[in-house]
Design a protein that fits this description.
The protein is α+β, with helices and mostly antiparallel strands and 218 residues long. The protein is 24% helix and 36% strand. Keywords: Signal. This is Membrane protein.
Length: 218
Amino acid sequence: MKRTGLSAFIALLVGALLSPQASAHPHGWIDLSVRVLTDDNGVVNGLHQTWRMDPFYSLLVFEELQQVENANLEQGLDQLGKEIRDNLARQHYMTEVRINNEPQALGEVSEYTAMERDGRLTFMFILPLETPQPLANATLTYQVFDPTYYLEVVHEEDGGQPRDNALVLHGEPDCELAILPADPDPELVMQAALLDKDESGEPGLGRYFAETGRIDCR
């Protein structure tokens, strides 16, 4: 691989990680945790998301960043974080949020960071709601998914069950929190399994394989 500079490598890497034209069955995964942000009045204003890229992609990132001329790992991660943020912005941050089943408009991400943590590439960001909404007597649900299903997004888990800290809410003790597993139609499962590496599935295929985070404050 010819080293043409950090910017060229970052562009290629982000394209491989989050390309909207990637093949449709998952070739990697992201471990997700979400903290729902509320103010003192129980009004939700955003989701603090932590994504941990799988070990293979993480290893690729760190090895390549270390070989880019005239750049250190910290500089590379800073630029990678910006490129990931910019790419995600074009895909609505791969996140859908609903309150009482009504879709919520999302704001622009301005707080984010990419880092190495325990050998994994970790991307953290705050995704604001365009208009903060009260949680009292309401139900908030969200899904985070790659529309192409190239990358599978799953909440952090132990022993096949979501961790207690995979979904966290502060300030509303009467709310019930749950992470609901995906339940795709068997035909869609077969469709995804049969896709070759050079084939793409229908737009939005990843939605059917997405877990749902739910905060019920009714």
